[in-house]
Amino acid sequence: MSDHVSTAQRRMGPRFARLVPWVITIACFALLYTRIDGAARRQGSSALPYLMEVFEKVDWWSWLALMIPYSVLFFFVDSLVIWRVVNWFNAKVPYRDILPVRASTYILSILNEQIGKGVMAYYLNRRDGVPGWQVGSSMLFVMFCEFYYLLSWACLGAALRWDRVPEAFRVLPWVALGAIAFFVVWILYFRGAIAPASKLRERDMLRSFRLARPWQYAVVVVLRSPALLTAAFVYSRALGLFGIESSFLEMLGVLPLIFFGAATPGPMRAVAILMWTQLFPEHPAEMAAFGLVMHNFFVLFNAAIGLLFLRRANRELFGQS
After folding, report:
1. Cα–Cα–Cα angle for 193, 121, 125, nearest 5°?
2. Please, which contacts does 41-50 make with residues 24 or more away whose CB atoms are closer than 8 Å?
3. Residue 103: what are its φ and ψ, rounded to 5°?
4. CA–CA separation, 70 and 294 (whole Å)
5. Does residue 264 belong to any structural domain of this protein?
6. Cα separation of 156 and 172, whole Å?
7. Which strand (E) or helix (H) includes residue 318?
8. d(Cα 74, Cα 228) in Å, to the nearest integer?
9. Do 102 and 122 touch, CB atoms closer than 8 A?
């Protein structure tokens, strides 16, 4: 009887994990609807026509002229970071050989960005014989650095527009202090200054952290930064097309917070879309429409880039022509 109970519990765990992103998404869109409907009723309308009016006013050709080059630039910067980390800790792989597989992983990233990084590990294992756990360690290193990259820019941006930061985000300085303290302990641990007898650091899954020097964390943050600076410019101009004025500096303060939300698992980046309406509460419909098209175009366009490279990636992974 106990075996049946434990088996059922093990099955329930993965099912629950799969449901959580959908529950978060449904809750976010339900809240979005109430905000848009409330604004629409104040204008004597209902939610859907009110939202459609926002879409009708946008110059979509100008919007595409902003978003397509930005998405391409992000792809090259993102691939550069992966290339740099892999060449540090795993194998000497030419940048041009990173491009097809990184592009292909964007297809899977429609559902979950971390799945894409898992495929990167599988690719390098198949192509270059690098042990899978060691490549996985490098992908963990990238994710670790991404947290500090976003947190650094979020703190800078919040400092630039502190008077407009929502109350919920005013804990950022304390989060940053905690993150700095954790980073110092983290580095000391992997240098052996803390718990020198610990065997945990010797595992393949933590190999990149064992090899990494503090300056390498900083390099990843610097390499990522052009994408965020460009995004601040693009998003501020794109927001103007939706009838809302925003400066480069203001967007620099907003975007890292939004990108934290976009990293939350779930379809359609619902948390990020909801956060736009929280950060610009006076324009709920405009910001909901803006967040919806910005995040989902970015994800889908990157997936389209992936389709261009899919044949080569399949050939190198599976020997398919």
Report:
1. 105
2. 50/285
3. -60, -40
4. 11
5. yes
6. 10
7. helix 284-318
8. 9
9. no
Q: Of the candidates 226, 277, 270, which has an alpha carbon nearest to the alpha carbon of residue 254?
A: 277
On the CB side of 161, how many CA atoms lie within 13 Å of its CA? Answer: 20
Pairwise CA distance, residues 151 & 175, whole Å:
9
**Rounded-to-integer distance, Cα 59 and Cα 40, Å:** 22
Q: What is the mean pLDDT of residues 13-35?
A: 67
> Mutual orientation of helices 270-279 and 284-318 as an angle, nearest 10°?
150
Mean pLDDT, residues 285-304 taken together: 84
CB 79 within 8 A of CB 98: yes
In a domain, 99, yes or no: yes
Q: Can you read off the two tokens belonging to residue 309?
A: 């490279």
Tell me the C-alpha distance between 39 and 49, whole Å: 12
Mean of pLDDT values over 203-208: 88
pLDDT for 212 equals 92
- CA gap 134, 209 in Å, rounded: 10
Q: What is the pLDDT of residue 211?
A: 92
**Structural domain boundaries enclosing 241:** 59-318
Q: What φ, ψ does residue 246 adopt, rounded to 5°?
A: -150, 140
Burial class (CB in 10 A: 0-12, 13-18, 19+), 195: exposed
With a CB cutoff of 8 Å and minimum separation 6, the contacts of 38 are: 284
Tell me, what DSSP letter sits at residue 265? Answer: S
Find all residues with CB under 8 Å of 253, minimum gap 6, and list them: 154, 156, 157, 158, 159, 160, 161, 164, 165
pLDDT exceeds cutoff 50 at 5:
no
Q: Which of 78, 82, 87 is nearest to 211 (CA)?
A: 87
Q: Is residue 289 part of a domain?
A: yes
| Counted domains in the chain | 1
**Cβ 88 vs Cβ 141: under 8 Å:** no
Predicted local confidence at residue 114, as pLDDT: 59
Measured in degrees and rounded to the nearest 5, phi and psi for residue 7 equal: -65, -45
In a domain, 275, yes or no: yes
